[in-house]
Amino acid sequence: MKHAVMKWSLVAIALLTSGTASADLARRRDAVVEVVQKVSPAVVYIGTEQEVESRFRGRRSPLEEFFGGMGAEPERQRISGLGSGAIIDPTGIIVTNDHVIRGASAIHVILADGRSFDAEVIGSDAANDLAVLKVNAKEPLPIAKLGTSSDLMIGETVIAIGSPFGLSKTVTAGVVSAVGRTFRADNRVYNDFVQTDAAINPGNSGGPLLNVDGEIIGINTAIFGGGAQGIGFAIPADKVRRIVDELTRFGKVRPAWVGIDTADLPPRVARQLGWDRAYGALVTAVEAGSPAAEAGVKRGDVVAELGGSRIQDAEDFDTRVRGYPARSAFPLVLFRDGGLRTVQVTPVEFPARMVEGLAWGRLGLRVKEVRGVLAVASVRPGSVAADIGLEPGDIILRVNNQPVTTHDAFREALLTARRGRSVLLLVRRGRYGYHVTLPFEQEAGYRL
């Protein structure tokens, strides 16, 4: 009898303990845990391989010193990289950062369940640091839903999942610290980012930033200080959707044009216009027949907001426009005659005729295709190209480190470079190649 009582007591204790454990687990399974369990299968680890040339560390000849080592004997080295990504379509479409896969000769994707695939690049865009990959699986893959960033609230909880330092399936949580952030890193201006205090380190790049509903509200990037000191950044979901659509449909982001020149707004000019805010960009010119002209933008307007966020200055306006590909409309808030008004602007592809004029008017050269390469056809006397010594017959190999062998490639590279102050060319003359930097001449008529 005593043994029977003891047996039933042990069973009762076990049942009570089991019930308590279940209740405890249910209490601990909060929104963050549910998001992690729901979305983790759609977060992938990305490993890359890249072959680079290195040169022997021997004595360099004067010719090599002058021409950047063109005569040195190269050797091949293989380096590896890592990052994260998110599956956004069951057919195997993956979004990640451009800097994760840039220059890779091979890309490997490892799913949360351990399956491994080789990936192909559907398209990438360095200006917005986004890339789209494709893997071929036999069955539909788990996905993470791409949400919206338009209704983000400062202070709301967000979750980052990725592979920081190669540690896969790592989860960090925090809050939205700010939206619409613009910052400079690696000699490039990045605009309209979501700032978070969720830890984002190297290897997190390309992974999702999620809200408590498990929707992607940003794609993480670790390009600013390695995500140190509680400052991480993510590309907002609405921009991701626009760029991914461009990359999947066209393999690239079509350069957009609205036809506006802007300048910074000095306090004195702002006072004369009646603008009492410490932000905004002044419209200095509008191209006739351009999307901006058709939308009603006028010279003398102050651009106050673009896409729902304030415009700080002319550079901010320029970089923000880059986030909108051709045919993707955005609202522009203008200050004119003491009041605010909103117009809808729809960018179009940059006119090819203007690219030719850009090369001739601001650099002083025309090019032509000759037996599979791009050659200088003519040089305008007195131009920056003439001053630096370019001559007809010189072969242009690269524009800002982008290979160019056709008119189309030259136009695209020049469009990407047009907002800078100069352009870097790799030019071959005879047996030798050398880099030259051409500053853009400041001429009117080449509006964004």
Description:
The protein folds into four domains: 39-54 and 64-134, Trypsin-like serine proteases (Thrombin, subunit H, Beta Barrel), CATH 2.40.10.10; 157-250, Beta Barrel (Thrombin, subunit H), CATH 2.40.10; 256-349, Pdz3 Domain (Roll); 352-439, PDZ domain (Pdz3 Domain, Roll), CATH 2.30.42.10. Strands 5-4-1-2-3-7-6 form a seven-stranded antiparallel sheet. The chain has helices at 2-28, 31-39, 62-66, 98-101, 237-250, 267-273, 291-295, 314-322, 352-363, 384-388, 407-417, and strands at 43-55, 74-89, 93-96, 106-110, 116-118, 120-125, 130-134, 157-162, 170-185, 188-196, 208-210, 216-221, 232-236, 256-257, 260-264, 281-286, 302-306, 309-310, 330-336, 339-345, 348-349, 365-370, 373-379, 395-399, 402-403, 422-429, 432-439. It starts with a helix and ends in a 9-residue tail after the last strand. It is an alpha+beta fold and 448 residues long.
Topology record:
Blueprint: H1 2-28, H2 31-39, E1 43-55, H3 62-66, E2 74-89, E3 93-96, H4 98-101, E4 106-110, E5 116-118, E6 120-125, E7 130-134, E8 157-162, E9 170-185, E10 188-196, E11 208-210, E12 216-221, E13 232-236, H5 237-250, E14 256-257, E15 260-264, H6 267-273, E16 281-286, H7 291-295, E17 302-306, E18 309-310, H8 314-322, E19 330-336, E20 339-345, E21 348-349, H9 352-363, E22 365-370, E23 373-379, H10 384-388, E24 395-399, E25 402-403, H11 407-417, E26 422-429, E27 432-439
Antiparallel strand pairs: 1-2, 1-4, 2-3, 3-7, 4-5, 6-7, 8-9, 8-11, 9-10, 10-13, 11-12, 12-13, 14-21, 15-16, 16-17, 17-18, 17-19, 19-20, 22-23, 23-24, 24-25, 24-26, 26-27
